[in-house]
Structure formats: C-alpha cells, structure tokens
C-alpha cells in the first residue's frame, strides 16, 4: 500500500499516528579537512542528532573508528542519565565508470571511488537535544576519524 505523509502525520494502511518533529538548520563542524553537517532536533519524546560527512579513509578503518565513536557517545549518554534509543550509520561508496573514445574504439574503465559518504544518527531519550549535541560534538572532536 502507498504511504501518505502530510505535516508530520503518516497514514499506513488503516491507521495513523503523528510525530512532533522540530527541526532546525544544520550546523557545519570543521575537523581538519572534513566538513560535518550536524542537525539536532526532537521527534516524539526523543532527541535526535543526524550527521553527514565524506571520508577518503579506508572503509575498514572507518568502520572500526565509527564503532569506537558510537561507544564513546553511548557511554556519555548513560553518564547523563539518558537512554540510548539507537545509534547507527551507513557508509556508501560509489563505483565510478568511465567510457571514453579517443579514436574509433570505445573503452571502459572502472574504479571504486575513494570517497565514502557517511550518514549517522544518534537517538536518545531522557536527554535534552542540546546536551546530546554537545556529547556528539565532544566525541567527534576527540575521535581519530578525522585525523590527517
């Protein structure tokens, strides 16, 4: 079935529910040569931080460092008596395909893009969104994810 959405109300099959979603403009954090888009908002009774950035690091190394970052954020949330709802990230890497013709033969070259697009979200309950944003910013500041 189709899902219809209008102003925070979602209709699924034969029932509906609404979300209080107060979003503000994202801020840009600068860590070395990386720009991180950070957005803090509230949805229902949860505080949500969404993050997005690009990395040229090795995917496996990035995965290990993301796990450590998430553990540090989780520790700090619980130290503030917050409840962890969900902390997650997706890492996307695109394949680059080049088709070129210099004479009469077309040639194809393929390579994996060195860029990784990272989308992350931190969802927590019983903690103010500004406090959660400070926790995330502090964890990002001390993370080796962004070292040169």
Give the secondary structure arrangement, pairings included.
Elements: E1 4-6, E2 9-12, E3 15-18, E4 21-23, E5 27-31, E6 34-43, E7 46-55, H1 59-79, E8 83-101, E9 106-125, H2 129-142
Antiparallel strand pairs: 1-2, 2-3, 4-6, 5-6, 6-7, 7-9, 8-9
Description of the molecule:
The protein has 2 helices and 9 strands. The longest helix is centred in the middle third of the chain and has 21 residues, at 59-79. It has one domain (22-146): Alpha-Beta Plaits (2-Layer Sandwich), CATH 3.30.70. Strands 4, 5, 6, 7, 8 and 9 form a 6-stranded antiparallel sheet that branches. Strands 1-2-3 form a 3-stranded antiparallel sheet, with no helix packed on it. Strand 8 and strand 9 (106-125) form a beta hairpin. Helices cover 24% and strands 53% of the residues. It starts with a strand and ends in a 6-residue tail after the last helix. With 148 residues, the protein is an alpha+beta fold.
């Amino acid at each position: 079935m189709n899902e219809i959405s209008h102003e925070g109300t979602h209709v699924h099959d034969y029932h509906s529910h609404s979300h209080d979603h107060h979003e503000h403009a994202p801020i840009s954090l600068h860590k070395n040569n990386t720009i991180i888009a950070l957005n803090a908002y509230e949805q229902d009774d949860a505080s949500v931080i969404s993050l997005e950035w690009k990395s040229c690091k090795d995917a496996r190394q990035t995965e290990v460092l993301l796990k450590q970052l998430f553990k540090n954020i989780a520790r700090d949330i619980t130290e503030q008596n917050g409840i962890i709802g969900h902390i997650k990230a997706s890492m996307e890497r695109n394949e680059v395909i080049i088709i070129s013709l210099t004479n009469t033969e077309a040639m194809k070259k393929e390579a994996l893009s060195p860029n990784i697009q990272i989308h992350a979200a931190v969802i927590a309950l019983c903690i103010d969104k500004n406090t959660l944003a400070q926790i995330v910013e502090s964890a990002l500041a001390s993370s080796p994810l962004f070292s040169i």
